[in-house]
């Protein structure tokens, strides 16, 4: 048994009289990898920040945290002592690779800075060491990368730079706060592998914060489950994940597990978690056995009567960039190239792809929010290509969108009643005020919100509730086609399953055709019966969901499926 | 980078051309024939006609425009219809005065605003920060000429330390130039520093909450070092923008201060020329202003690219 690295006792954080983290207690041995799991607001980031001594001034922290070889209590040490530890003995990798680096400084200089800060190192030695570090995090062409500025690197590359920076002085303890949440699945997989490899090699203690249980299963040997600022369960990863003792852990596992459904074919939620069977280590997973039976039942008579609701052919969208050279044409960005597909009425189509694949552009074209530069697209009988805004009135009644960000997509100064009612206030809708009010309350009830929600404002609701409001707004004008753009990616795990179930129920109830855009393959697999895979503005593969998942043809699809982590798989073969 | 400079030059030229057309057009649309004005109220039509011939205002407008425009390019603004003197050396002289005055005032304003604004941001939760903010509010509320008059009555009249007004070109007697310019520069810089300080404060406050500052702290930098090394350059961009706008506005905006201190600047010249209906002089001064403003924009744009690598080479 190796030496103890970090001992935390009675760690509490409060803001005024409000307690945010209560009486946390855990210990970490040298080289141990501990996952800190929790949903937003559980206090997991605060915990890590307090170990660095970087909590905002208005928060009060108490308790004890001892790091090997350091006399001071990390929680009460003067800033001068903490400064000498930060970046040297304790390092941190933050969530947002886009904003965590100084945009005006070359990345090599930023990596070198952490070395010159703590040691008397000649400038040139630090610079060449920085290049070595960038090479060790597998940045292609590290000498060139060192001179690059953050905006010239991709999100994954920037996170690699952050890792290089954090490990530059060989710290004893590495804190990672959701380091891959903002990254694409394939990139996430690579960055996780990198962190894992580096801490194993160096014997660094890792405290890994995340809401994603599959990621924890992949990275950590021990887990701490945090709920409302308290540790509700702690132990070995395999044990906690396969036989959770606390109901909250069980609920979290149930809601995270996209491969498991209840007897109605719906995802498990916090409410139904009691019936959930947790994954078992060493369990042999049969891909075919997990296959979900599509919930749409087809009756033979219907098939021939079906009309394509969306018919896109040769769809392209090209943007022009600013001139970059005095001569020659302006550079073109092909956001979408020769995309053709059909969606029949009643179908649920999943659109899968990583950032920059053209998903959002495609969606904007379907909704008539943007015009294609080539090709045509017929949506619910309306030719969208080349249509003027007044020709799209019919389409707007037939097609509605639920957006990704439940915070930004609702007008903060409108009451929920007015937000949900708004789609009815278009020319052609003949409802009077009373009828509209009745529609609003029916809709709010359908999405599971109380009737008194109507008089409140969006900020008074949680993320999941706001997404319910968005769904109510989308469905009130009885559209035939619903487009959902990453509707659950901004939501907590336990809420995600509820919203997905609600969406599935409503699609059945209102006989909707669904186009579901997501980067999360598990979600698409659960919800959709057909899927198109997009990359670099093109459809690289399409087919029935099970076909694609069980027998992917295109190398990119294979990579995507291999990179996406399912909880069951990670627990079974850690 | 080259592309950017090229684009800026192109914009400079197009804007300048457009400005000549607009300025010329407006001046000619205004009522009042220059010849008639110059001839005086009691002049006979013959005299007016003769003057018009002399000035060339009887020729078709395009010809007049070309005449004026080609003169501009050679740096020759022509001869004033009213004072019958060559405009170019006069304008050149006044431009020098105004540029010296405004540049020094802006530099002083920045020297005050950057440290105080940064301090106000760093201490925004403390009384000292609130005090600095309150002072800057007050500074904006006090008009520059009032500050000027106060300075004159205190420093010159009561204490007798500095001359109350007047202008000596720096080449003539540098010591006297310095003595005479201190008060007007201070009066001008007062309001400007208060305005710029507000921008510095909000820009620094914003960068203080940026993730990369937290990263710098996580590397072990002290709060002040993190701010100085990583924050200030990022905060400089909005401050540069407001400084350039204020600078351009001050070239003419200094006119009130010029009057208080009896300084022969460009603003005073413009005011006099408008009063005399001296069309050609007004036209010339406005064109000089346009050129200066465009030049400032050009310089500021180059500074942006130096500050921010994201604006360099679109790659």
Architecture overview:
The complex is a heterodimer of chains A (574) and B (315). Chain A is of the alpha/beta class and 574 residues long. In chain A, helix 3 packs across helix 4, helix 7 (185-202) crosses helix 21 and helix 16 (433-446) packs across helix 17 (463-475). Chain B has a single domain (88-311), classed as MetI-like fold. Chain B contains 13 helices and no strands. In chain B, helix 5 (87-122) runs parallel beside helix 13 and helix 12 (266-275) runs antiparallel to helix 13. The model of chain B has no long low-confidence stretch (mean pLDDT 87). Classes of the chains: A alpha/beta (574), B mainly alpha (315). The interface between A and B is medium-sized, with 37 and 28 residues.
Notable features of this structure?
heterodimer, A: 574 residues, alpha/beta, Rossmann fold, 3 domains, six-stranded mixed sheet, 36% helix, globular, B: 315 residues, mainly alpha, MetI-like fold, 78% helix
**Which quaternary structure do these chains form?**
heterodimer
Number of DSSP strand runs of chain A: 19
Biggest interface, residues from each chain? A-B, 37 and 28 residues
Strand order of the largest sheet of chain A: 5-6-7-3-8-9
CATH topology of chain B: MetI-like fold
CATH architecture of chain B: Orthogonal Bundle
Question: What percentage of residues of chain A falls in helices of 4 or more residues?
Answer: 25-40%
SSE class of chain B:
mainly alpha
- CATH-defined superfamily of the largest domain in chain A: P-loop containing nucleotide triphosphate hydrolases
Mean pLDDT of chain B: 87
Task: Please indicate the percent range of residues of chain B in DSSP E strands (runs of 2 or more).
Answer: under 5%
Shape of chain B: globular
Helical element count of chain A?
22
Number of helices of chain B: 13
């Amino acid at each position: 048994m190796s030496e103890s690295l970090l001992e935390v006792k009675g760690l509490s954080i409060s803001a005024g009289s409000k307690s945010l983290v209560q009486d946390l207690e855990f210990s970490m041995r040298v080289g141990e990898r501990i996952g800190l799991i929790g949903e937003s607001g559980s206090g997991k980031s605060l915990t890590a920040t307090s170990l660095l001594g970087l909590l905002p001034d208005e928060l009060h922290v108490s308790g004890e945290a001892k790091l090997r070889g350091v006399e001071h209590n990390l929680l009460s040490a003067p800033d001068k002592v903490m400064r000498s530890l930060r970046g040297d003995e304790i390092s941190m990798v933050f969530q947002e690779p886009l904003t965590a680096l100084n945009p005006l400084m070359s990345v090599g200089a930023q990596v070198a800075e952490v070395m010159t800060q703590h040691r008397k190192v000649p400038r040139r030695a630090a610079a060449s060491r920085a290049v070595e570090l960038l090479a060790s995090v597998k940045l292609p062409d590290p000498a060139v990368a060192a001179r690059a500025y953050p905006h010239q690197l991709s999100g994954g590359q920037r996170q690699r730079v952050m890792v290089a920076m954090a490990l530059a002085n060989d710290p004893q303890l590495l804190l990672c706060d959701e380091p891959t949440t903002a990254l694409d699945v394939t990139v996430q997989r690579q960055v996780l592998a990198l962190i894992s490899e580096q801490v194993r090699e160096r014997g660094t203690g890792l405290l890994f914060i995340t809401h994603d249980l599959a990621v924890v299963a992949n990275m950590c040997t021990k887990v701490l489950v945090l709920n409302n600022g308290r540790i509700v369960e702690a132990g070995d990863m395999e044990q906690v994940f396969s036989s959770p003792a606390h109901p909250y852990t069980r609920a979290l596992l149930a809601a995270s597990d996209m491969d498991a459904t209840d007897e109605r074919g719906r995802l498990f939620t916090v409410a139904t978690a009691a019936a959930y069977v947790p994954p078992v280590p060493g369990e042999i997973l049969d891909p075919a056995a997990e296959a979900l039976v599509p919930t749409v039942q087809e009756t033979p008579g219907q098939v021939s009567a079906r009309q394509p609701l969306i018919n896109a052919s040769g769809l392209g969208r090209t943007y022009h960039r600013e001139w970059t050279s005095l001569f020659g044409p302006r550079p073109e960005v092909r956001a979408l190239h020769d995309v053709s597909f059909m969606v029949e009425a009643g179908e649920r189509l999943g659109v899968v792809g990583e950032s920059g694949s053209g998903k959002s552009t495609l969606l904007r074209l379907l909704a008539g929010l943007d015009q294609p530069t080539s090709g045509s697209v017929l949506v619910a009988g309306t030719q969208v290509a080349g249509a003027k805004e007044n020709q799209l009135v019919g389409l707007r009644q037939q097609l509605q969108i639920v957006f990704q960000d439940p915070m930004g997509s609702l007008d903060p100064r409108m009451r929920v009643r007015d937000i949900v009612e708004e789609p009815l206030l278009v020319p052609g809708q003949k409802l009077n005020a009373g009828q509209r009010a009745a529609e609003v309350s029916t809709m709010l009830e359908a999405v599971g919100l109380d009737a008194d929600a109507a008089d409140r404002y969006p900020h008074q609701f949680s993320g999941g509730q706001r997404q319910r409001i968005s769904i109510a707004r989308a469905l009130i004008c009885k559209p035939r086609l619903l487009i959902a753009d990453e509707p659950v990616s901004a939501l907590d795990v336990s809420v995600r399953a509820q919203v997905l179930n609600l969406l599935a129920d409503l699609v059945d109830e209102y006989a909707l055709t669904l186009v579901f855009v997501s980067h999360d393959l598990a979600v698409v697999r659960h919800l959709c019966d057909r899927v198109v895979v997009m990359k670099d503005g093109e459809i690289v593969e399409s087919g029935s969901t099970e076909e694609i998942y069980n027998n992917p043809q295109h190398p990119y699809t294979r990579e995507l499926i291999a990179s996406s982590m399912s909880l069951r798989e990670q627990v079974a073969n850690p | 980078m080259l592309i950017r400079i090229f684009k800026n030059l192109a914009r400079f030229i197009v804007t300048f051309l457009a400005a000549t057309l607009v300025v010329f057009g407006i001046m000619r649309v205004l009522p009042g024939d220059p010849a008639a004005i110059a001839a005086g109220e009691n002049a006979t039509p013959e005299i007016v006609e003769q003057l018009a011939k002399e000035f060339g205002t009887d020729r078709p407008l395009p010809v007049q425009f070309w005449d004026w425009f080609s003169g501009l390019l050679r740096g020759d603004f022509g001869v004033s219809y009213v004072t019958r003197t060559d405009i170019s050396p006069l304008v050149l002289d006044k431009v020098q005065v105004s540029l010296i005055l405004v540049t020094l005032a802006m530099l002083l304003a920045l020297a005050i605003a950057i440290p105080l604004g940064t301090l106000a941001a760093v201490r925004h939760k403390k009384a000292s920060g609130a005090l600095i903010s309150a002072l800057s509010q007050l500074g904006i509320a006090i008009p520059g000429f009032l500050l000027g008059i106060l300075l004159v009555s205190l420093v010159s009249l009561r204490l007798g330390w500095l001359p109350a007004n007047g202008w000596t070109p720096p080449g003539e007697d540098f010591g006297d130039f310095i003595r005479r310019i201190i008060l007007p520069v201070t009066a001008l810089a007062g309001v400007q520093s208060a305005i710029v300080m507000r921008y510095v404060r909000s820009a620094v406050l914003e960068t203080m909450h940026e993730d990369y500052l937290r990263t710098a702290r996580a590397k072990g930098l002290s709060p002040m070092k993190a701010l100085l090394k990583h924050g200030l350059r990022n905060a400089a961009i909005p401050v540069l923008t407001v400084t350039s706008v204020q600078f351009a506005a001050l070239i003419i905006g200094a006119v009130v201060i010029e009057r208080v201190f009896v300084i022969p600047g460009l603003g005073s010249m413009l005011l006099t020329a408008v009063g005399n209906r001296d069309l050609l002089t007004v036209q010339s001064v406005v064109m000089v202003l346009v050129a200066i403003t465009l030049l400032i924009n050009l310089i500021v744009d180059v500074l942006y690219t130096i500050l921010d690598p994201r604006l360099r080479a679109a790659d």
